[in-house]
Amino acid sequence: MSVLIARISELNRAKTIEPSVACSADLFEQDGNGSDVVDDEFGPTDEEDAQNGQKKKEREMPTNEVIAEQLSKIQNNQKIFLKKISDLEKKQKKRKAILNFRQNYWDANDCDENLEIIGENNHIVHYKGDYKGWRSVFAKHQIWLGNNFSDIFYYEISIGKMNDYLISFGFGIIQKTEESHKSVRHNKDTYAYESNGCVWINGERKGSKDEYSYSIGDTVGIGVNSITRQIFFTKNGLRLDFSDFFVPPSFARDHYYPFVTLATFDDKIEANFVPIFMFDLATL
């Protein structure tokens, strides 16, 4: 009897345990290797996967603000790059001008007797006479343009001493004459810039501005661009607003010389023919 009661109790305990074991077993499947695999009903569906992927792509796509910022950076970098190219071209142009300029100086054998040429490089002209009167001197070498030389000719003079006289200086370029003792501004084939601010072209007065006058301490210049045939004038490193003056097509083949004219006692100028000027030729 006691054995029967024990057997009944054992069966009752088995019934109590089996439902929970069965529920646990439903959560797993056996794969071919006997491993437990999570049932598909607990993972995302295909539709949910697609939606999640689209949202991720949208999060990764740049906004309009980001695109605009990136475009602005590209444009700025392009401007910097173009500026560097422009600066390099200017430096190369300036280097060419420096290398191909011909050295020059005032010719003591082509100088009025009332003027003296002084200084180590014969670049200074001094009026040693004791009276007023136009007296001129020419440079030793003519202007050379093109071929193995620069396409630009230019030189400057600096005013060292000047008497209280309205038109005390004149300088420029000219086809050489025998009249070095006179003012040569009236000569044909002359391009001159006077201290009263007047410009003379082929012996005729073509322009004048008070602000273009010069005196002690000023540096003025004259130049020719053989490519454009344009003649230009400068004052203290700035180009003057005379843009409609041109030399003839034969200019580069003709014999033009720099000259300077002084008018009163003790006037003094110093020329600079070396291409390190106050005016930047690379700006042409």
UniProtKB/TrEMBL annotation:
Per its UniProt record, what Gene3D superfamilies does this chain match? 2.60.120.920
Q: Which residues form the B30.2/SPRY domain?
A: 84-278
Which residue ranges does the record annotate as region Disordered?
32-61
Return the protein name. B30.2/SPRY domain-containing protein
An example of a Pfam family matching this protein is SPRY
SMART domains found in the cross-reference section: SPRY (SM00449)
Q: Where is the composition biased (Acidic residues)?
A: 37-50
Where does the chain cross the membrane? Answer: none
- Species the sequence originates in: Heterodera trifolii
